[in-house]
From TrEMBL:
The entry's keywords: Metal-binding, Nucleus, Repeat, Zinc, Zinc-finger
Name of the protein in question: Zinc finger protein 233
SMART domains: ZnF_C2H2
Keyword Metal-binding: yes
Organism: Stegodyphus mimosarum
Amino acid sequence: MEKSSIFKEDMYTHSERKPHVYEKRNQSFSKKGILNKRIQTGEKYHICEVCKKSLSCKSSLITHMLVHTGEKPHMCEVCKRSFSHKGSLKMHMGIHRKEKPHVCEICKKPFSRKTHLNSHMLTHTGEKPYTCELCKSSFNQKSYLKSHMLSHTGEKPHVCEVCKKSFSRKGYLNSHMLIHTGEKPHMCEVCKKSFNHKFNLKKHVYIHARAVSCM
């Protein structure tokens, strides 16, 4: 290859130009050598036998297959939670290290993940992009819409292991479990009386507020 051609090829790597086209795969490359290599190995693409997705290398196929097998080989040594990808485990570890590098510019609340910050920002903007197709109620988080949909389907997937009572939301089950455990985590700051539900504490505090107003 002539010196001028080599220089031209090298310049393509610094620009967005990819003049060498592989028509069979509808792909383009900055260097002809990469194109030639891709053509030579073009029939050696690694294809997933389950969903027929094509991947460029075997390691990518192996990682992709975890989606279908459900395997989660990467385990957190702190809480024993498992993940299918090493990157997901790395993100999870930030929770234990209490790292929260993503900060809301409006209220300065920090978050461990960018996705959590993005969801939080909807509380400031008032956006509710997730809409129920049945009743048109809108929500700012997908998880809220998912929980809402159970009110239409009547599903109650969260079952109490003690009394077998079912609930549509995990939060409702968690509150219910306090009946069995006897825990009363909500304490009145005035008289130190404890309650198993925040709602009961709220009603109780009203008694103190009314007593003060009558004095």
